[in-house]
Structures are given as structure tokens and as C-alpha cells.
């Protein structure tokens, strides 16, 4: 994580608004191609939570811990409690909070200069765990409470596979590119490609968080959830093809320069 830190002037009591302003200056620019919820909603929620955490002296790892607590509490409820309107709201709210705190930990790290490889590792491990456990917990709950025909349980199972492979491929590709001296950067300035952000909504983790609001209406929930899984599969396959091509070209360029 970036080690940049900015501090208020000595002897001045900083307001919450002032902390928010410093966060805006210290954080990374949002990638223009990021899905709409992550870009326009979650990042801003994360900024507010990061300001709250910073003013209470919480470390980036502590913020990651709060994110994990919210997320995994929601995940644990899915196989333990029968689907209902109340469960859907609680699960969705906890997942949204967990996602916002996931954004906040990096913002706190950049604001305080306390980012570290260990902190980045912890953040990725929490992400990797939630990606596979959320759909599996959902599948167990659907089976236990006999919500859908059993054949449809393949959908969350497929989601667990596609999400895990996509996340691993993204991290592995980035590490291999770094090892070759190439650092990936996402464009953050210029005109915003609104259409690309909107088209990314089905694969946005925020969309997955919100679809649980439909949990009390199984048909509507499963239509929305199945669409998310289908989009994830398409993106995972397309990304894998693109990453493989990038690494092949990188290898060819290195061989040509030798």
C-alpha cells in the first residue's frame, strides 16, 4: 500500500470535514472503468468510514477486521436462518458495510502512511475467503430450507468457482507483470466512460450485496443472482484470455530484447 500521509497543521483540531478533505487528497484516483456501484457509491461510503476510523485511531488492519466481521456475519446467517424479507435486509446491509470498510482500510493506510505488505496480504486473504464462502453459504441455505429445485444449486457452486478463479487470475497476473518490471495502472483522469461503468454493474460486488434484498421473493432473487453469475463467468473467461495474451506478449518482448 502507498505510504503517503498528510497531517493537519500543528496545534489545530481537525474537524470531520477536514479529515474527509484530506482523505480525498490522499487516496488513489478511482479507475474510470470501475463498475458504477464501486466507483460512485462504495468508494464514497468508504471515505466516510475511513474518516470515522482515523479519528478513532483505528489501524488499517483493524478496519479490515471490521470489514471481515460484517461480511462473515452476513455469510454465516445464510445457512442458519430461513430466507425472509428481514434476513435479506440484514444480509444486504452487512455485506454493504463490509464492502465499504474494505474500501476504507486502504484509504486509512494512505492517510496514515501505515500501509504494509502484511496489511495488503490480510486484505486479499479476506477478499479471497468471502468470494468462495458467500456463494457456498447461499447454496447450503437454499438446500437446507428447500427454496429451489436442487439442480439450481449448481448456480452458486458455479459462482464460487468462477469468482475464485477470476480473483486468483487477477492477482497472479499482476504479480507476474510486476516481476517482469511492468506495473499496471488504471486511467483515473479525463472524460468518464459512463457506459463502461454501467455495463460493469452485473459483475460489481456491490450488485451482489444488493441482490439479497430480494431474498424473500425466491424467483426474483434467483433471476437476479443467476444474471450476476452468468456475467461473472463471461468476464472471467474473457479476462483469462486477455491476461494469457498479455503474458505471452511480455515473454516475447523479453526474448526479443535479450
TrEMBL record:
<dbReference type="Pfam" id="PF01066">
    <property type="entry name" value="CDP-OH_P_transf"/>
</dbReference>
<keyword id="KW-0808">Transferase</keyword>
<keyword id="KW-0472">Membrane</keyword>
<dbReference type="InterPro" id="IPR048254">
    <property type="entry name" value="CDP_ALCOHOL_P_TRANSF_CS"/>
</dbReference>
<keyword id="KW-1133">Transmembrane helix</keyword>
<feature type="transmembrane region" description="Helical">
    <location>
        <begin position="151"/>
        <end position="173"/>
    </location>
</feature>
<feature type="transmembrane region" description="Helical">
    <location>
        <begin position="221"/>
        <end position="244"/>
    </location>
</feature>
<dbReference type="InterPro" id="IPR000462">
    <property type="entry name" value="CDP-OH_P_trans"/>
</dbReference>
<protein>
    <submittedName>
        <fullName>CDP-alcohol phosphatidyltransferase family protein</fullName>
    </submittedName>
</protein>
<feature type="transmembrane region" description="Helical">
    <location>
        <begin position="194"/>
        <end position="215"/>
    </location>
</feature>
<dbReference type="InterPro" id="IPR043130">
    <property type="entry name" value="CDP-OH_PTrfase_TM_dom"/>
</dbReference>
<keyword id="KW-0812">Transmembrane</keyword>
<comment type="similarity">
    <text>Belongs to the CDP-alcohol phosphatidyltransferase class-I family.</text>
</comment>
